[in-house]
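<purpose> Linking amino acid order to shape
<body> The protein record starts here
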Amino acid sequence: MAYMKRLVIELSKPDLRENAIRVLSKLFHELAPLLWNSVGTIEVLLQEITSIYPNLSPPTLSHAQSTRVCNVIALLRCLASHPDTMSLIMAMIPMYLYPFLQTTNTLPQFDWLRLASLGVIGVLVKARSKEVIPFLLSNEIIPLCLHSMEIGNELSKSAATFILQKILMDEDGLAYVCATAHRFFAVSRILDMVMEYVQRQPSSRLLKLIIPCYSRLSENRGRAGIALTSSLPGVFANPAFINSLREDPTTWRWAEQLYENIRKNRFQSDRMYDIVWSTSSSGYVSFVAPLHVSSQSSSAIDWTAYMERLVIELSKPDLRENAIRVLSKLFHELAPLLWNSVGTIAVLLQEIISIYPNLSPPTLSPTQSTRVCNVLCVASHPNTRMSLIIACIPQYVYPFLETTNILPQFDYLRVASLGVIGALVKANSKEVILFLLSTEIIPLCLRSMEIGKELSKNVATFILQKILLDDDGLAYVCATTDRFFAVRRILDMVLESHERQPSTQLLKLIIPCYSRLSQNRRAGIALTSSLPVVFANPAFINSLREDPTTWRWMEQLYENIRKNHVQSARTEVQMDDIVDKLCV
C-alpha cells in the first residue's frame, strides 16, 4: 500500500509521472479509492489526457504519446470499475474521452486510444447502474459507438458493439433508439455494416454481440420493429449462417427470439416477402439509410412528418439518394404518400430510366443497381396497386427483366423488378392478370427462371404460378403450342436444376404449375406423354409428402395425368377406327 501511495504522489512530479502512470496502470482494482481521494491526482490525469488534444487534428499523434495516454485511461478504467467511485459520472469525467472516439484516423496509435476509451465506457455499462445509461444517452454516446463500429478494427468494433448491446438491453435505451426514425436507421445501418464485416472476416466474438442487438430492436412493437422486419440482412436466411449460430447456446437463444419477433412483426407483409426472406442468401434486400439522412434531420421529429419530409427531399437532387434509401425501408404505409405527392412518381421513373443506357453494353455499377432497387417499393399497397396498372408503370421495369447478364448487380435489379410484379399478382386481381398477359410478362418470367439465381427463379416461378392459377392465364398459356412448350421447357429445366441443387421453396412453387397445366385438356394430353421422369422416382415422390399443400397439388397432377392418359388412349383407338374405315 505504501508503494502505491508513493507512486500516486509521484504523479504530481512531471519528471516521475510517466513511470508512475505506467506502473499504476498495472495495479488496477484496489487502486481506485486511493486515486480518487488523493488531492490533485484526477486533475493530473485529466491534464495528461487534454495535453494531446492538439495532436488529434491534424493527426500528429506519436506512438509514445498514445501509449502514455492509454496508460492514463487505464487508470480511469480502474476508477470506473470500482463501486465506490461512481462519482466519476457525476464529475462528467468520461466526456474527456469523447474526442478520442470522434477521430476518423485509423492508424494504430489512434485506434489504441479509441479502444482504451471504449474500455472505460464498457466498464461503466457493465456495472448495470441506473445512473449510467441515462448519463450516456444524454451525452450522445450512441453516435460515437456507431462511429467506432464503422471505422475501428475488430477489437474496437467489439467494444463499441458491447456498449450498444448493453444500452439496448436497457428498456430506456431501447426506447431511446426506437423513438425516432433517424436514430433507428442510424443504428440499423451500422449493424448491417458490421454483419457484412463478419461475413468477410468471421469473428465469433463480434457475432455474439451483434445478434442480441438485432433481437432487442425486433422487440420494439412500434414501427422500428416493422422496419427491421422489412430490411433484415439476407444472411439471416442463409442455412449455413443459421447453423453457425447454433454452436453457441446463448447466441442461438437470441437468434430464436429474433426470428420469433420477426414473424410477429410481419403482420402486414405478404407471401411475396416470405418467399424472398426464406430463400435469400446473397444479402440483397438489405437497403439501409446513412447515418445522416439529410442536413435537416431532427431527433425529435415524428415518423409521419419524417416520411413527408423525405418525400419532399426526393425532388432535391443532392438529397434524393439518401431519401430513397431510407424510404425504401418503410414500405407499406409509404405507398399512398408517394403516389399522391406531386411529381414524386416522375422523379422515381426518372431514376429508373437513367440507368437504361448502362444495361447494354453492361456498364451498370453495384451502387447504381442498389439505388434503383430502392426505388422499386410502391406496388405492394392495395390503394396504389390499380393506379400503378392503369398508368402502365410496371412496364418501366421490363428492360431489367430482358437483360441476360448474370452479374450480381443485374440480378439485384432482376429480383427487385420481379418483386414489383409479384406484389401485383399476389392480389389475385383479374385486372392485374389481364394487364400482365397483354404486356407479355410470361416470356420475361421464363427468362428469369432460366438464367437467374435461385432467388430470381423463385420469384419468377411464383409469378408464373399465380398466372396459371387464374383461368384466363391458364387458357392463354395453353392457347398455342408455342406458348405451352415454352413454359413446359423452362419448367423442366428448373426441375432439373432442383435435382442438382435441391430447393424446397422452388419445388413448392413448381409443382402447382405442372398440376394446373395438366388440367387443360389439350395441354394435359401433351404433358402426359412428356412429364419429366423424376415424377416416377419413389424418393422424389416421398419427399413431396412432407408438405401437405405440395402433396395435394401432386395428387391432383397424378389424377389429371391418369385421366389424360385414358383420354389419349381413347383418341388413338378412335383414330385407328377412322383409318380402318377409310381403307375399306
